[in-house]
Design a protein that fits this description.
With 219 residues, the protein is an alpha+beta fold. It has seven helices and seven strands; from the N terminus they run βαββαβααααββαβ. The strands form two sheets. A four-stranded antiparallel sheet has the order 5-6-1-7. A three-stranded mixed sheet has the order 2-4-3. The longest helix has 33 residues. It starts with a strand and ends with a strand. The protein binds zinc ion. Zinc ion binds next to helix 3.
Length: 219
């Protein structure tokens, strides 16, 4: 059964403003291995309408993006990439770079295909040079699919490399899944002790040490 950690606002104030690196405990939050030099990254939206305190509301504007990082060993870092490659786009690692490239190519593919589809609608009148451009709508749609296929092939190749390294590091995959991290609605004024984040952690030993070392509530 998972443990739930309650992270107070105080933890965010003492951390970097846009990033909360949960360390200690400095061992893998999945399998308890040392060293844990990688991180499981979560992007959490802190919404101002959930933070009624006026000065904090100004500071956070309407929405603040917070990156939460939990320590991982290399094997667990590789393992998570196979199931959640999209979660790696904020990582300053080779896999983070791969994830950003996949996202970029997917966006370009979607944009190109959308323009192609737009060309066959009556929104673009078939007048003058536009009539000529409209006749080539299928080129843009095809190009969109080609870019998407390239993105898929590149991601497949990087996953094959990850699988090969993982098989040599630790056959059998990860012990625990990714944590769940979310913003908590704050009732009344936001005090240092107000809970602003909740995290569900499957590794109860890690969660227990985390609560003790950071002085956070746990259930
Ligand atoms: Zn691990």
């Amino acid at each position: 059964m998972a443990s739930r950690l309650y992270v107070p606002y105080l933890a965010l104030r003492s951390a970097d403003k846009d990033e909360l690196v949960v360390n200690p405990p400095a061992y893998c939050s999945h399998c308890s291995t040392i060293p844990a030099e990688y991180y499981e990254t979560h992007v959490v939206r802190l919404r101002a309408n959930r933070i009624p305190h006026r000065s904090i509301g100004r500071k956070f504007r309407t929405e603040k993006k917070l990156i939460v990082r939990l320590p991982l060993c290399r094997a667990c870092y590789l393992n998570d990439y196979l199931t959640s490659p999209d979660a790696y786009t904020h990582d300053d690692t080779p896999l983070g770079k791969e994830a950003r490239r996949t996202t970029l190519l997917s966006n370009i593919s979607g944009f190109t295909a959308s323009i192609g589809i737009l060309l066959i609608t009556p929104f673009i009148p078939a007048l003058g040079i536009l009539a000529f451009i409209k006749s080539y709508w299928y080129v843009l749609v095809s190009l969109g699919f080609v870019i998407l296929a390239v993105a898929w092939l590149l991601q497949r190749r990087s996953m094959q490399a990850v699988r090969a390294e993982l098989a040599s590091l630790r056959p059998g995959g990860s012990k625990y899944p990714r944590a769940l991290v979310w913003n908590t609605p704050v009732e009344g004024d936001l005090e240092s002790g107000s809970v602003i984040l909740e995290m569900n952690i499957e590794n109860e030993t890690w969660a227990g040490d985390c609560a003790r070392m950071n002085v956070w509530r746990i259930e």
